[in-house]
Amino acid sequence: MDANSMKTAAVLGSGTMGHGIAQVLAQSGITTRMFDVAQAALDKGLASVRSNLDKGVEKQKLSASDRDAALGRLSITTDFSAAIRGVDVVIEAVPERIELKTKLFGELGRALGPDVLLATNTSSLPITRIGEAAAHPERVVGMHFFNPVHLMKLVEVVKTPASSESAVRAAVELSVRLGKEPIVVQDAPGFASSRLGIAIGLEAMRMFEAGVASAEDIDKAMVLGYGFPMGPLKLTDLVGLDVRLSIAEHLARELGARFEPPAILREKVKKGELGKKSGRGFYTWPA
Length: 287
Prior knowledge:
This protein is an alpha/beta fold and 287 residues long. It has two domains: 3-186, Rossmann fold; 194-270, N-(1-d-carboxylethyl)-l-norvaline Dehydrogenase, domain 2, CATH 1.10.1040. It is 48% helix and 14% strand. It is built from twelve helices and eight strands. Strands 3-2-1-4-5-6-7-8 form an eight-stranded mixed β-sheet, with helices on both faces. Strand 5, helix 6 (127-132) and strand 6 (140-144) form a beta-alpha-beta unit. The longest helix is centred in the N-terminal third of the chain and has 20 residues, at 39-58. The radius of gyration is 19 Å and the shape is globular. The N and C termini lie far apart (44 Å).
């Protein structure tokens, strides 16, 4: 596996993470096919990519010709077989459900040869279990990107006990090709970033729940006092309260009560207050 010779990629899922990953792949010169089961989701994801690239041109961070070239390398499809045909790498970014991911990796393993790199963008689910569903689990790794993908520099490359050194090296080199800064971590609950990020986020929620301070002031404490680019409650709104609840529940099962979600998180998710995507979370967001 050689990341620098990769020419074609498939991204499974066109949501917030999926379309962001597809964008940076296309910008790096890789022909990219974005797959989803719903055409409406694909149209929305492609529109978001266009919007991101247009903003880049407006801010003079890329040229109009570079934008057009990236869009020319990106296509969308609801045909799974067509999406993965002849690819060098597949990055999965579907919803955080282990049964869905293992089903997909089983299909990928049957359809693609052992030299195709298979990566999952999961932020907390066990990659070892996902990889076991695929033929040749040695070519399965985690590539955990961060939102917004086209701006955030970090990629966690997650290594399972079965992952080959060539697969890990290819994922690291691909991350660099995409303009990212990779770190390599073992397949442990929450990896590095989710485990630390959730711990801080849950404590911020408990403080808000107890009336220690407003959401704005809790966030300001971390931004101005510790140099965080964004406070933990605003970040939770951006990621999605439902996503953070799912990760916290998983970590609580794996690591114990210190990751038990606070009542306010469960209540907000139950009421549909999921953060920016629903218009309300710990903050109110404009439509």
